[in-house]
Amino acid sequence: MLTEERNKPHILIMATGRDSAVKRKLFIYDENSDSSDISSETDDSVRDKDYFNSSSSSDDSSVVTSEGGRATRGFIETPEKKKAARKRQINTECRKKVKAQHRRNLGHGYTTTKGKTQIPRTLGPPCSCKKKCRELLHGVEMAIFQSFWDLQTFDKQNAYLFGTIKSVGKKRVYPKKTKRQTSSRSTTFRYFVKINGKDQEVCKQEFLSIHGFKIQKDEFIISVPR
After folding, report:
1. Residue range 143-147: mean pLDDT, rounded
2. HEC string of 129-197?
3. Any idea where the domains of the chain sit in the sequence?
């Protein structure tokens, strides 16, 4: 009974490192046991006690057992199962916000985060000034409207507005009857559109109308150039 237990291999599990993906099994056999009891899964260092492994000169080829005999050891590498990667959660609210912002930059209808529905941008009516600015456009107002919203991003649209709205000094200052005689505003704005590569000046009402902005809510246009 004691002889059979001595002939069985002693298996030790060793890891090559803390984060290693491969484990190494250490088989220790008593040299006094029969070579036929050694499993075929072991390497040459187990089958042959005189085998010398040149690639691992720093490791000992044999160890001393508790009974005083000598045993040969060998390593077998077995792959370790990898842990499943954690899936990334989808933020649906963020997707809705980005989609609504993209549709807004295109001039399309969209729904705000508060659930309010915004109608699409459309070409507005002609101005009512004495210059009759719509007639000065020669039918290209729809092309101007479409090219502006085809820019698709807020930065490009903002850069376009900076190039078409110019700040100039006031020509006339009318005296006021109030105690405050001087006006706080020293500049005024002039609005231009491109027609055949040339700048055509239009009034503020026409400028807002051909770009699809509401005349009642022109704070966006007014706050662009300073």
Report:
1. 92
2. CCCCHHHHCCCCHHHHHHHHHCCCCHHHHHHHHHHHEEEEECCCCCCCCCCCCCCCCCEEEEEEEEECC
3. 9-79, 91-120, 122-170+186-226
